[in-house]
Description:
The complex is a heterodimer of chains A (403) and B (277).
Chain A: H1 8-25, H2 31-47, H3 54-79, H4 87-104, H5 109-134, H6 138-157, E1 162-164, H7 170-176, E2 179-180, H8 182-209, H9 217-239, E3 244-245, H10 246-264, H11 266-276, H12 278-283, H13 288-314, E4 316-318, H14 326-336, H15 349-367, H16 372-399
Antiparallel strand pairs in A: 1-4, 2-3
Helix pairs in contact in A: 2-15, 3-10, 3-13, 3-14, 3-15, 4-5, 4-6, 4-13, 5-13, 7-13, 8-9, 10-11, 11-13, 14-15, 14-16, 15-16
Chain B: E1 21-30, E2 33-43, E3 48-52, H1 59-67, E4 74-79, E5 82-84, H2 89-95, E6 97-100, H3 112-116, H4 129-142, H5 159-170, E7 177-181, H6 189-204, E8 208-212, H7 216-222, E9 225-230, E10 233-239, H8 245-253
Parallel strand pairs in B: 3-8, 3-9, 6-7, 7-8
Antiparallel strand pairs in B: 1-2, 1-4, 4-5, 9-10
Amino acid sequence: MSDTIGTGRSRIAGIYDDVRARVTGGSLGSLPVVVGLVLIWGIFQALNPSFLSADNLVNLTLQCAAVGTIAIGVVLVLLLGQIDLSVGSVSGLSAAILGVGLTQLGWPLALTILFALLTGVAIGLLYGFLFTRFGVPSFIITLAGLLGILGLQLKVLGPTGSINIPFDSPIVLFAQSWFLPPWLAYGVSALWAGGMFVSAVLRQRRRRRAGLSTSSLGWQAAKAGGLLLLCAAAVTYLATDRGVGVMFVFFIGLVIVMDVVLTRTRWGREVYAVGGSVEAARRAGIRVDRVYISVFVLCSTFAVVGGILAAGRLSSASLSSGGGDTNLNAIAAAVIGGTSLFGGRGSAWSALLGIAVIQSISNGLTLLNLDSSIRYMITGGVLLLAVIIDSISRKSRAAHGQA
Amino acid sequence: MSVEAVAPLPERLPPDRVPVLSMRGISKSFGKVQALTDIHLDIYAGEVVAIVGDNGAGKSTLVKILAGVHPADDGDIEFDAQPVTIPDPTASRALGIATVFQDLALCDNLDVVANLFLGREIVGAALEEEEMEKRAWELLRQLSARIASVRVPIAALSGGQRQTVAIARSLIGDPRVVILDEPTAALGVAQTAEVLNLIERLRERGHGVVLISHNMADVQAVADRIVVLRLGRNNGDFLAPDVSYEDIIAAITGATEHARPLPDPPLPAPRRIGPAR
Lengths: 403, 277
């Protein structure tokens, strides 16, 4: 048995082996999507120089936030190897609740949002109950939910079918016109990179205390430094236009929180375990039903939050809120971002990466004045590509005896 | 019945020693199928008991009763001389019975540490990964396990290594009795040797080990006592050094109805089937 406490040389060799094993062994993680994103940006910039302008990138960040938030929830259900097809309808319903609550009923904003969130929780509980009690496939449950909740959305909206949310409402300001001042954006970036580095140092210290192998701090410092530089560059560039949107920061914050919850808590571990093997999880004493229910609840709740953000950004709730491609974009984002459809593999970051790809394509094609017919076809092609990569890496894992 | 007349390893164990786990008169049926009838089984600490028998002899049913998958219809189970019931898997674990099923039940996508501590994670403010990793190494060292890294996903391990992880996992709660269901069934020669070594480690650590196996060579290599089941009944309880391969096979197949009357009446004379002329 070899503990992996090694000399510098063997450590470098180890890192190299690790990277090579990952690439050839099919656990590519987020590498393909990052490469894809760079390619897409390069192509659109070549076709239309205003694509990478600060103005357009600010728009892009704001376009990402709403559907991206929905995609976080989709990542969770995909991690369990399940699906939620109704996230679009749920986000539409939450937009309708927001509109009706704020304007027709005159509820305060906090109460309206709370009510919408509770609606999401209730929908998730219902899905979870149906799934765990009757064993109906989540595909069918949420397909029924897609229709049923769409109906509910129409009912809530009433005969007018479209409600404008006042422009001075904080939710609209939050989604449209609140931007971090540059000093604060730099501060947040520094906090993020610093937090990452401090947590790496602390982990290092705990590992040393436990007598375990340690990786070099230099690498961690380089990672944190790289992140800081990247953020600072982005902030500086975006600040030449409106800056970093508060809504986008909120979305990134949700991703980070979800990532920490998934990787550092017992619940997160249970989600991955259930996604990997339900039977193994059950035998290990994990209350599988609770995991399913909690994930369905979280997914619907994220869909509600996404719906509220979308309604704020459009400052309206209508029949088409959450309709069209919202649903499929959210699901496609999670898959394109690298979360496996087969369960157990993926991370919260796939929501961010995936939605960045989808919105970049959509935004770039709009800049080129291409019809939405083309946009749909290209997005469909990219989704197909992502699923093919997922399937190939799964096969490759099997071929390398790793599945 | 001669089964109980066999003294529990007189040369190795003091006579007043009580079994950790004792089953008396266990019966279990599934509908009309009588899977187990009046089974007796004693398991002592630091002893490897092999349960052998042909397909359908009731080995798996017996294991499932101990693991709490199926409750027994009839009979008594004593743990440390206290009568107990095992209605579900949680109760089995709580008693200190760890079962390693044939299909291992590991999560391929999680690493060795996560699998070892699945369902029993050490949690402070967050998951205590370092503490779990440290204990994982300690445990694997005690078992002399050949695993190079505990941070690789299970999917990357060989069959023998997976079996090792599954067995090591069963030891996390420090059980009194470890049940291994066909641990060598799918393994090659070297990997089988590895797992048999592991079973000896378990005995040294003082666990009572129940080994279910089809492979007589493995059974004779590690077992202290061999319990034979046939058609859902006890059909012999041998001390491993005293018994030959032929005796065990005979008891398994029923060639000798080991000190027990034939369970079934003799078959009726063959009758001719077909149109009578």
